[in-house]
């Protein structure tokens, strides 16, 4: 893993830990003001901008507080000069959901760019396989 890829790996794992902990400040810390996210729940057109991105998390935290997990299972990072991407499988769900679907995983794709010498999340895409 290159030094840039290690920095991005650390950034994503720090973000995932913040999601799991419900730590909004750390969750937002490395995201661009003009982030675009396509998420599992509506709106289907995605959210644009850090303020809209921020509003998507409280309902998730409430659901997660009922015993859901959010744990990175695998993570791959590829970095170029000023652009990078990563993809991951995340164990995201309740024990009841995993009892019904043991292999259920959230698919996560992240696009990053280097701004002012630091890696910044520009795009997130979260999805589940629909059966």
Automatic annotation (TrEMBL):
It comes from the Bacteria. Gene3D superfamilies: 3.10.450.50. Residues 8-129 form the SnoaL-like domain. This is Uncharacterized protein (TIGR02246 family). It comes from Pseudonocardia endophytica. The lineage of its organism: Bacteria, Bacillati, Actinomycetota, Actinomycetes, Pseudonocardiales.
């Amino acid at each position: 893993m290159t030094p840039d890829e290690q920095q991005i790996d650390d950034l994503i794992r720090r973000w995932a830990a913040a999601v799991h902990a419900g730590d909004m400040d750390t969750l937002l810390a490395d995201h661009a003001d003009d982030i675009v996210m396509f998420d599992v729940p509506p709106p289907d057109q995605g959210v644009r901008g850090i303020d809209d991105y921020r509003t998507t998390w409280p309902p998730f935290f409430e659901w997660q507080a009922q015993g859901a997990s959010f744990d990175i299972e695998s993570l791959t990072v590829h970095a170029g000069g000023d652009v990078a991407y990563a993809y991951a499988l995340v164990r995201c769900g309740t024990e009841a959901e995993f009892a019904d679907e043991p292999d259920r995983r959230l698919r996560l794709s992240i696009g990053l760019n280097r701004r002012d010498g630091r890696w910044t999340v520009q795009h997130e895409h979260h999805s589940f396989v629909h059966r």
